[in-house]
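ok new one. same drill as before - structure tokens go in, u give me an amino acid for every spot. 280 of them this time. try not to just spam alanines like last time pls lmao
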């Protein structure tokens, strides 16, 4: 049976870790095996949303923000793959908040009824900017719908994580009642399909700290994490920890895609370096 966690349980556990100065590590999982191993390794939260399967199929995460699949349908499918193999970790479902074909209140209840322990705003319109971002926001299918999603969940006493790209988005999400902020500084670099033109480490840390300071002003008790851009591995994330006040890290490519790429590459090369014996 799927183990569910309440909002109160999750928040209490995370805040205790913050108090002990232990970094909170949250990871995306696009297949059951990744979720299973991350769970066994002691990850704090597992995120299940539509970009994961695209990553595991060898494509950039940004494919999940284009019209190449039913994002909420993909997450519903992930429930069958991920929830049965996770024993000890809350699993958080991503909801595309502006889905024109679903009642979002019913979808929230459906996700929670399947065994998820919380909700996040993925895919997020925060990934867009410029004229297109203005167009979708003013059309009622953009980031404001994600703020409403978090507010709905908060009123239902459902644990939430929200990605935000700007201090204003951080402020809005905290006012909506979010439990954890993920400060997003763009697509993650590295590997075979990582984003090449990311912010520098200095720029990414400055943007993250700017969002962190807004968050603390709004709610000194908020749990705040970093994500994306040049924060691709433990060394880079440690640099962010050193330069900012964040409490932890959300990794998607960093938890599932990049480790798999490196491990498979190394293993295949090791096998290819073997020598056959002398017997015919």
């Amino acid at each position: 049976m799927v183990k569910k966690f309440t909002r109160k349980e999750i928040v209490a556990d995370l805040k205790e870790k913050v108090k002990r100065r232990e970094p909170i590590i949250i990871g995306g999982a696009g297949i059951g095996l990744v979720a299973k191993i991350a769970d066994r390794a002691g990850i704090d939260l597992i995120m299940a949303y539509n970009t994961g399967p695209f990553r595991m199929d060898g494509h950039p995460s940004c494919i999940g923000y284009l019209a190449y699949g039913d994002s909420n349908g993909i997450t519903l499918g992930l429930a069958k793959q991920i929830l049965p193999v996770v024993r000890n970790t809350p699993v958080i479902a991503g909801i595309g908040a502006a889905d024109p074909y679903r009642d979002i209140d019913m979808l929230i209840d459906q996700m929670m009824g399947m065994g998820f322990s919380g909700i996040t705003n993925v895919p997020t319109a925060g990934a867009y900017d410029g004229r297109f971002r203005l167009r979708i926001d003013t059309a009622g299918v953009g980031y404001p719908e994600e703020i409403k999603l978090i507010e709905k969940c908060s009123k239902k006493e459902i644990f939430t994580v929200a990605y935000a790209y700007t201090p204003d988005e951080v402020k809005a999400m905290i006012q909506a009642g979010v439990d954890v902020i993920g400060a997003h500084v763009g697509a993650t670099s590295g590997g075979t399909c990582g984003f090449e033109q990311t912010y520098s480490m200095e720029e990414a840390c400055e943007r993250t700290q700017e969002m962190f300071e807004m968050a603390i002003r709004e709610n000194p008790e908020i749990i705040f994490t970093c994500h994306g851009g040049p924060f691709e591995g433990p060394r880079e994330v440690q640099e962010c920890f050193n330069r900012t006040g964040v409490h932890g890290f959300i990794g998607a490519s960093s938890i599932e895609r990049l480790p798999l790429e490196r491990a498979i590459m190394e293993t295949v090369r090791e096998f290819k370096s073997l020598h056959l014996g002398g017997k015919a």
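The chain has a mean pLDDT of 94. and btw The beta strands are 24-28, 45-48, 91-94, 118-120, 159-164, 180-184, 223-227, 248-251.
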